[in-house]
Structure formats: structure tokens, C-alpha cells
Design a protein that fits this description.
heterodimer, A: about 110 residues, mainly beta, five-stranded antiparallel β-sheet, B: about 110 residues, four-stranded antiparallel β-sheet, globular
């Protein structure tokens, strides 16, 4: 049962524009959310996170928004760069067993020049 | 090394063969995790160690899967009598604290069972 869902398998954006990657979750016990970025043949790399007590977290070109009532979060990348082309995974951690991350299936982002 | 190191990077096993996958976490990291990533899927949690103690093995898909971390550093994931559905990338991650949030992942071992 997929508790973290990324419904868009792929996304293509022009360089300089905004990339918006979406993620939905079903488990109301999740209280910490993360985005990981993955290049081919490499392991996932932590990108940005947000706690359920906040609704926004910003780090440079990356901003994560959390809408708890809708059980939805999104990652905004602006401006997008060709080097951002990768697979982005949304992950969530429950309060009672914070060591196990639940991942979505990923969204493959392609930023074209 | 500076990051999580996994070996081998690639492993081809004949069905029924036993395999052992190794993970060297970042030095000093207390927590160690194993995840399985099937093709086209996100990583799925297998097991968690805090130092040498295996605190959660709820994600191990069957009793053919066994993990250990005897000295609280290097960990080995062993799969006995491999089957084709075991084909996946096995990812190891480590973190300083118990919560697997900012965990650092290795490059993974791609296991192909033929």
C-alpha cells in the first residue's frame, strides 16, 4: 500500500522556469517530509526537508511547501537549471518510528536548455 | 572514506545462490538502514540498526533475508537461495542520530538474479 504518492512519473521544464514537483501522502502520522534527488547509478542525495509544524522551508533555489490538511507537499525549483535533471523522490517519516522513510516512486525531471 | 560505501556495485547471481552485500557507513554514524529499490519504484525500508542492535527488521520480505552489524560499523545484508524477484538495487544509508531523516545513502548494489 503506497503511503507516499508521486503521481507524475516525469516532468519537462525549460531552463530558467519554475519546476513544481508534487507529492501526496495518506498516513496522518507522518510528521517529517523530505525530498531526495537521484542521478543515474548513484544513491539518493538529501535535498531539503520540512517538519509538520511548518508550511514552508526554503533553501536557495529550492522551496518545499506543506499543506497538512490536504496531505500534500510540493517542491519548487526556481530558476531550473539543466543540472537539476534527475529523479526526485518524496519521502515521509512517521512520528512513532522516525527511522524508516516511506518513499514515493519518484518524478523524473528534465530541464532543457 | 567520506561517504557510505557499498560493495559490490553489481552482482549477478544464479537463482538459488546465496549472496552477501556489504555496507561501510560514514565513520561515527550510529544508525544504519537497508532499503530495496525495485525497477521503477522508490526505495522500500528493509531494516534498521542502532550501533550493533537490529531494532527493526519488519521490512525484510522473507526469512531468506538476513542482516547483521556485529561491531556497530560495517553491515552485511545476506540473501539466501536468491529468487528472480530479489533483483533490485539494495541501498544502504547511515545517519548520526536514530531518526533516518538526513540519512546519507550509498551508491547501492544492483543485484540481478538469473
Amino acid at each position: 500500500d503506497q503511503q507516499v504518492k508521486q503521481n507524475s512519473p516525469s516532468l519537462s521544464v525549460q531552463e530558467g522556469r519554475i519546476s513544481i514537483l508534487n507529492c501526496d501522502y495518506t498516513n496522518s502520522m507522518f510528521d517529517y517530509f523530505l525530498w531526495y534527488k537521484k542521478y543515474p547509478a548513484e544513491g539518493p542525495t538529501f535535498l531539503i526537508s520540512i517538519s509538520s509544524i511548518k508550511d514552508k522551508n526554503e533553501d536557495g533555489r529550492f522551496t518545499v511547501f506543506l499543506n497538512k490538511s490536504a496531505k500534500h507537499l510540493s517542491l519548487h525549483i526556481v530558476p531550473s537549471q539543466p543540472g537539476d535533471s534527475a529523479v526526485y523522490f518524496c519521502a515521509a517519516s512517521p512520528a512513532d518510528s522516525g527511522y524508516a522513510l516511506n518513499f514515493g516512486k519518484g518524478t523524473s525531471l528534465l530541464v532543457t536548455p | 572514506g567520506a561517504g557510505v560505501s557499498q560493495s559490490p556495485r553489481y552482482k549477478v547471481a544464479k537463482r538459488g545462490q546465496d549472496v552477501a552485500l556489504r555496507c561501510d557507513p560514514i565513520s561515527g554514524h550510529v544508525s544504519l538502514f537497508w532499503y530495496q529499490q525495485a525497477l521503477g519504484q522508490g526505495p522500500e525500508f528493509l531494516t534498521y540498526f542502532q550501533n550493533e542492535a537490529q531494532l527493526d527488521k519488519s521490512g525484510l520480505p522473507s526469512d531468506r533475508f538476513f542482516a547483521e552489524r556485529p561491531e556497530g560499523s560495517v553491515s552485511t545484508l545476506k540473501i539466501q537461495r536468491t529468487q528472480q524477484e530479489d533483483s533490485a538495487v539494495y541501498l544502504c544509508a547511515s545517519s548520526l542520530v536514530g531518526r533516518g531523516t538526513e540519512a546519507f545513502f550509498g551508491q547501492g548494489t544492483r543485484l540481478t538474479v538469473v
